Inverse folding.
């Protein structure tokens, strides 16, 4: 029996891949007896920071391409996203409750997956550790002791507001550059409004971090107030950028905050890119300075929490197993992949590698001509400045020389999916499975 510790995206992927193929799995999670500081649902595969899985563009976005790679390998996360999708232009956003409910149901109904509610406190000798970016307590200490120093970074989640509290007369709908189906609500600000917002953001009181939460902030999930501190126009070139957007008068605003549906019913909206560590009262005060949000009702305030990842480049092989112990695998953000989809990908591949081992099939990561293979090889290649990595074209083996960026991305996508097909056939034979 394969023991998998943690039922987040990565652990759920690994458990489902193995269990659905007849391998006996013991899936251990501390829910519902205990929760991390950022989790609150009793369901598995819980999404914490956002309901967006980023772009769904296969041919023009690296994360979109990664999703397609995973679909072709039978990903549980991609199946859950499909049945819980909410409109979000070119992005793949989901209703979080439906998403987690689907994953939980699939795991519970599989006769080969045995779910145990227990808090694991020691690093196991075999199986899978998929305890996520909030790994802590005695398990964290044991990992640190047995494997060497673990590293920290920190990220924050964005607030969610009630749809009927948005002043729609101060907004316009539409996706950037007109792409998508016009699902975003855009909240424009003129120069005076923008500068007043930034000034309030910079002077607002931040929540006090606990001792275990003090450390470096990861660039990919930077709190809004930290971004603003880098210069008064920083937000206008980032989260509040107006490029590609214009109001009903056809004029591009000075700055724009975008809102995205948080659930299928459209009763809640996420403040896109507004992850923050401000105190709750300060969040209401500051965001209410945006004209369209003057009377916004907050359903969830932004929170900041600790993320933990291993120095995987020194510890793991490209199949996510320990170099010092090939029977023990790690999966998820603890390995140094960053993002929902990337985390799920690592769990899917851990499941594949363990299944291969059980069936006497030689197993290693796909080539780095596909996103999943490139990520697996990135986290297992020694790097003096090792940091968590998202899906991006830069990690692919660059074998395409084209000036047209759009055509280059399409060609890279074709090569990636060709490699995924080759990888499938190396396991299941011609045609895959």
């Amino acid at each position: 029996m394969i023991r998998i510790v943690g039922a987040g995206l990565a652990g759920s992927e690994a458990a489902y891949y193995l269990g659905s193929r007849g391998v006996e799995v013991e899936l251990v999670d501390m829910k519902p007896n205990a929760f991390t500081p950022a989790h609150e649902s009793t369901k598995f595969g819980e999404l914490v920071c956002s309901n967006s899985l980023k772009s769904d563009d296969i041919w023009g976005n690296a994360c979109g391409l990664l999703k397609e790679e995973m679909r072709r390998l039978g990903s549980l996360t991609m199946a859950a996203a499909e049945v819980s999708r909410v409109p979000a232009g070119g992005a793949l956003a989901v209703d979080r409750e439906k998403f987690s409910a689907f994953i939980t149901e699939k795991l519970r109904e599989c006769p080969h997956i045995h779910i145990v509610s227990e808090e694991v406190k020691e690093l196991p000798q075999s199986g899978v550790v998929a305890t996520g970016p909030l790994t802590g307590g005695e398990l964290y200490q044991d990992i640190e002791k047995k494997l060497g120093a673990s590293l920290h970074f920190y990220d924050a989640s964005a607030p969610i507001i009630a749809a009927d509290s948005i002043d729609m007369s101060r907004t316009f709908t539409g996706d950037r550059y007109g792409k998508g189906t016009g699902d975003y609500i855009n909240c424009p600000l003129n120069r005076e409004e923008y500068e007043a917002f930034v000034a309030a953001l910079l002077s607002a009181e931040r929540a006090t971090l606990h001792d275990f939460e003090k450390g470096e902030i990861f660039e990919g999930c930077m709190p809004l107030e930290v971004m603003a501190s880098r210069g008064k126009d920083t937000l206008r070139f980032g989260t509040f950028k107006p490029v590609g957007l214009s109001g009903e008068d056809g004029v591009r605003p000075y700055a724009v905050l975008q809102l995205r549906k948080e659930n299928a019913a459209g009763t809640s909206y996420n403040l896109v890119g507004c992850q923050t560590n401000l105190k709750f009262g300060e969040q209401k005060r500051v965001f209410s300075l945006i004209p369209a949000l003057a009377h916004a009702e907050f359903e969830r305030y932004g929170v900041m929490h600790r993320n933990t990842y291993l120095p995987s480049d020194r510890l793991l092989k490209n199949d996510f197993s320990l170099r010092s112990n090939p029977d023990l695998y790690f999966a998820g953000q603890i390995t140094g992949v960053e993002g929902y989809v990337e985390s799920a990908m690592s769990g899917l591949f851990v499941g594949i590698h363990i299944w291969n081992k059980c069936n006497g099939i030689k197993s290693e990561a796909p080539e780095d001509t596909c996103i999943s293979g490139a990520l697996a090889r990135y986290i297992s290649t020694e790097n003096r400045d090792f940091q968590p990595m998202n899906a991006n074209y830069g990690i692919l083996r660059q074998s395409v020389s084209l000036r047209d960026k759009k055509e280059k991305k399409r060609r890279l996508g074709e090569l990636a999916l060709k490699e995924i097909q080759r990888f499938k056939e190396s396991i299941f034979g011609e045609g895959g499975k």
